[in-house]
Design goal:
Helices cover 37% and strands 18% of the residues. The chain binds S-adenosylmethionine.
């Protein structure tokens, strides 16, 4: 665990034309193989864990099944994708999908103090795997996701486990009743992050916020503790912070 100020944000790269990365063949192959090995190890770990919580096994398999049937990113030029991007002013590369493994989500939610009586909100919830981990710890679980296709496919699988997943822009989601907010914002541009941080100021003081790769670097967000954790694409730092706005000066 570290407790130090993180380095500044890298500059913005909003150019959608750069969304294919030119890597030498062998390097690309080795990255792909690494991805496959990590994915297999994580899936097996998740499945073994779920034997302890069979109630969550069916929703988990449902998410997996929907992933096999179709990924919305196969059709990046669809009307739905264009409309979602226009509505928020984001670029396609910001919707790149990387999912948080159940085992990883269980670990960071535990570290963040999630338990019965907590309410976890995942901003940009994708297929909602993190929300299964929230239910594992007995917390309320809600996610908001920009892409309607994700939601239509997986919400019926998540509902029986007590999880709600709705279509929407995360920067408009009501946050007042969240005790813990998670955002896997690896691919978001600095502009999108800035919009999100402004919106996070609407949450209740004391709310804990968990982000991946980089913390929130803005006044009022304190803590800055981080842990290295495994994701489908490799190790990333997971940051835990708390929203503690400075007290307003007392009225005269
Ligand atoms: C990297 S995925 C993370 C999925 C999930 N939270 C997890 O960790 O497994 C980021 C998700 O954020 C969604 N997203 C991007 N911009 C959004 C926005 N403005 N509002 C809601 N969701 C958004 C993307 O469509 C994508 O599904």
């Amino acid at each position: 665990m570290t407790d130090s100020a993180p380095p500044p944000e890298p500059p913005s790269r909003r150019d959608d034309a750069q969304d294919t990365f030119e890597l030498p063949f062998l390097q690309r192959l080795s990255l792909q193989l690494q991805g496959i090995v990590i994915a297999v190890v994580l899936r097996v770990t998740d499945l073994l864990l779920l034997l302890v919580r069979p109630r969550l096994l069916k929703p988990y398999l449902g998410l997996w099944w929907q992933r096999i049937l179709r990924t919305p990113y196969a059709a990046r030029r669809t009307f739905e994708m264009a409309r979602a991007l226009q509505a928020t002013g984001q670029s396609f590369r910001e919707l790149m999908y990387g999912e948080t493994p159940l085992v990883t989500a269980l670990a960071f939610l535990k570290k963040a103090g999630v338990g019965r009586g907590s309410r976890v909100v995942d901003l940009g919830a994708g297929r909602g795997r993190v929300l299964l981990a929230a239910r594992w710890w007995g917390a309320g679980a809600h996610g908001v996701e920009l892409l309607a296709d994700h939601v239509a496919r997986v919400a019926p699988w998540l509902g029986p486990a007590g999880i709600t997943l709705t279509v929407g822009d995360m920067t408009r989601e009501p946050l007042a009743d969240a005790t813990h907010i998670f955002c896997n914002w690896v691919a978001f541009s600095p502009e999108t992050k800035a919009r999100l941080v402004a919106h996070l100021r609407t949450c209740t003081p004391g709310t804990r916020i968990i982000t991946v790769t980089r913390p929130i670097q803005a006044e009022g967000f304190t803590g800055h503790t981080s842990h290295w954790m495994l994701f489908t694409w490799g190790f990333e730092k997971v940051w835990l912070q708390e929203y503690r706005p400075k007290a307003l000066p007392a009225a005269p």
